[in-house]
Amino acid sequence: MANATEQWSSKLGFIYATAGSAIGLGAIWKFPYIAGQSGGGAFFLVFLLLTLFLGVPLLIGEYILGRHSGKDAILTYKTLAPRSTFQVTGWLGVVCCFLILSFYSVIGGWSLLYLGSSVSGQLSNLPLNESQDYFGRLIANPGLALGAQLFFILLTALVVAKGVQKGIEQVSKWMIPSLLVLLVILAAYSLTLDGAAEGIQYLLAPDFSAVDGETILFALGQSFFALSVGVSVMVTFSSYASKQQNLPASAMTLAIMNVLVALLAGLVIFPGVFTFGFQPDEGPALIFAVLPAIFEQIAFGQILLIAFFVLFLFAALSTAFSLLEIIVAAFVRGNQDKRKQASWIFGFLIFLVGIPSTLSYGVLDDFFIGDRSFFDTVDYLTSNVLMPLGALLICLFIPRKINKDILMQEFQSGSNAGKKLFVLWYTLVKYVVPFAIVIVFIDQLFGLNLITFIFE
């Protein structure tokens, strides 16, 4: 079992904490702009299908590994398969979390800057055509951008240093419901805008001509990123779960919440995009450019804008907590006396590694790796290469290294799931998920355009 001092206080606490990990900027910031760049409704449909048939089975698998081992991401594979090459899976997850947080903290810093701008009133009465320029000027200032990134990392380390129950769980319990309520309010208002119909059509009406191998790869990466799977985050989180936790139900609840938040985020953003003449493929700046324009048209808009960026910051922090927790847990290894020191040390190292990503929109804006900035390169490497690769290794590990009876026992522990449901999950994890990941990788690596051919 996991260290007795490090367990979730309740079943609901586990769901809130994992939801806090998954429902962060992946759904609110990343989904709208990736969807905008990848075909809108077609991307959303592919994302939904991949989440249900690949993401959820993998999520349950990570839950089972963590709860059964009671160990962190690295020790889980070492304990369950001694002297196996699969031990690299845990290390891959920890390294990937480190890299993700290095660029993720940049976005967290942006959220801090925009929160400050909204509180000071600098976003009020901002001409529509200047909202993008304002964003560009703000993040291009190296002092502001680096200072905000560092402060974001400090907040993250502060909470993780407090531990699982007193830190991560307590913050997630009130933050996630608040975020959902505000998103519903904003989506309801956005649907009254002139461009609402066009925005809804773009988000929900699939155009399969826009679907190609890259769309599938981005949707796969977004699905894994949004559920925090493929990097053993959920292995570590479920190591703190009790045997009474219903793992299949918890995974499905998390997936539904995640898709709902992504949908709400899209309904908040895209009506405003078409109402105010923005392009849906604006990229990472999309939410920062569009939202101030939307709030400017609303009664009490400045107050709501402040509230949104407060919750946007909390959403960023919730995912950051989980990413840093996986790194810290792997090195603390149950010795909670080392937690505070490890939290601050790794937080500082992550900040240093993230500096080039922060400066990608300023001092290093002319530095490219291929056709991508340093920020985009790290994002692409983690979301579209390392996370799917980690997911593939986990799917290969589960049926080959864990006894099937043990898997079924963990699957059914705390739930009334029948054998047929277990067989379906086992089949998906053993055959369908790895096959799908390999096909997407091969399609992209060799440019075979197999996926494009399927949808034509």
UniProtKB/TrEMBL annotation:
Keywords attached to this entry: Membrane, Symport, Transmembrane, Transmembrane helix, Transport
Principal location class: membrane
PROSITE patterns referenced in this protein's UniProt entry, alphabetically: NA_NEUROTRAN_SYMP_1, NA_NEUROTRAN_SYMP_3
Subcellular location: Membrane
Entry keyword annotation includes Iron-sulfur: no
Membrane association type: Multi-pass membrane protein
TM ranges: 12-29, 41-65, 86-114, 134-161, 173-196, 216-241, 253-279, 299-332, 344-364, 384-402, 423-442
Family: Belongs to the sodium:neurotransmitter symporter (SNF) (TC 2.A.22) family.
Protein name: Transporter
Species the sequence originates in: Alkalicoccobacillus gibsonii
